[in-house]
Amino acid sequence: QESESENRLDGETASDSESRSEFGGSSTVQTSDDTPEVLNRALSNLSSRWKNWWVRGILTLAMITFFFIIIYLGPMVLMTIVMCVQIKCFHEIITIGYNVYHSYDLPWFRTLSWYFLLCVNYFFYGETVTDYFFTLVQREEPLRILSKYHRFISFALYLTGFCMFVLSLVKKHYRLQFYMFGWTHVTLLIVVTQSHLIIHNLFEGMIWFIVPISCVICNDIMAYMFGFFFGRTPLIKLSPKKTWEGFIGGFFSTVLFGWLLSYVMSGYRCFTCPVEFNNDTNSFTVDCEPSELFQLQEYNIPLVLQSVVGWKTVRMYPFQIHSIALSTFASLIGPFGGFFASGFKRAFKIKDFANTIPGHGGIMDRFDCQYLMATFVNVYIASFIRGPNPSKLIQQFLTLRPDQQLHIFNTLKAHLVDRGILGSLEDA
């Protein structure tokens, strides 16, 4: 009984083993790490521990450099990269399900999976286009029609895929087909929905995109560094290599890094201004008058700390206070996205989601915490930052019929007169 239990996957029950046999065999999937030959030769004299250190370090620097390049190229390139990352993550998770359960004989499984990805992206990006490119949509007749009936078209597209799935059901594969149907939709929920929130954060201002992502990257690097050199106490069984020393060291490093990065970026309009579409030039613009969030303010230092630092006040940007919340989440809650991914991989006995990046695994291995972070940032902005947008209200007002515009004008005028605002303006 003990040997039989050891041969099962972590946390697997007898029913899981029976289901696995029904699905076509073992659910163990192995992935290899394709380290470039030039690195293998250069690091051949090192132990496996230090070899992994250098491979991860070199590839990390390469990815950070690539990150800086795409930021320099602007919002449109960033959105394209987010879209490409989303597709690759979806591909990695779907491929695991395809291989784990030997779904090779399932009719239309892969075709329907990609079709549902297309439908969900059409819905989300259609909503974004209508919201952020309202004037452009109203100017073009085909876009105006697609925008007006967007949700109905999206629902019709999904229903088509749903009917195709029902028609593809095969007698001997009912259970497996419904299992993979659920696998596809959970993947869509995790990957597509949250990657779309990253784009929403980007439109609020590049700083809301760069700072959270950078905090997650910083926490990942510093937790690895502290854990590599000082790690002694295991943190969680799901990730045996994670240590309390790395977790705590990563937390303090990330908070300090986020606070300093926010101070640097808050002084540049190209990072703080919302990303908007200029209809005259048909291009994105990031020029505006910075809000109070990005203007230096003077704050009183608590009496307890005044004797330590020797200052009574400090000048800083209000966004830096928000950055503490962002970096705290990135270092304390964000890693649970990685633990969740570790549990998923252990459940199917795989080392990584893929072998796309030597020393790091697949794209999903690098973005497991980023998606959770993106959701938090979006909720944080909606709860504590975002207010009514006058420009969008005016855009919608101008699309109404003349009688509707006149009714709103008279209502607003009466309201302003009652409050005494319109009268004071006329006297002036």
Plain-language structure description:
The protein is mostly helical and 428 residues long. Helices cover 71% and strands 5% of the residues. Among the domains are: 37-73; 86-106 and 170-385, no CATH class. The chain has a two-stranded antiparallel sheet with strand order 1-2. A two-stranded antiparallel sheet has the order 3-4.
In short, what is this structure?
The protein has 428 residues and is mainly alpha-helical.
Name its key features.
two-stranded antiparallel ribbon, flat, 6 strands, EC 2.7.7.41, mainly alpha
Instruction: List how many beta strands DSSP finds.
Output: 6
- Sheet-strand content, in percent, reads 5-15%
Strand order of the largest sheet: 1-2
Largest sheet: 2 strands, antiparallel
Question: Averaged pLDDT, please?
Answer: 82
Shape: flat
Subcellular location: Membrane
EC number: 2.7.7.41
Biased composition (Polar residues): 24-33
Membrane topology: Multi-pass membrane protein
Write the layout of secondary structure elements.
Blueprint: H1 2-7, H2 14-23, H3 37-42, H4 48-73, H5 75-100, H6 109-132, H7 134-139, H8 141-148, H9 150-167, H10 174-204, H11 206-230, E1 234-236, E2 239-243, H12 244-265, H13 269-272, E3 276-278, E4 283-285, E5 297-300, H14 303-309, E6 313-316, H15 318-332, H16 335-347, H17 363-385, H18 390-398, H19 402-419, H20 421-427
Antiparallel strand pairs: 1-2, 3-4, 5-6
Helix pairs in contact: 5-10, 6-9, 6-10, 10-11, 10-17, 11-12, 11-15, 11-17, 12-15, 16-17
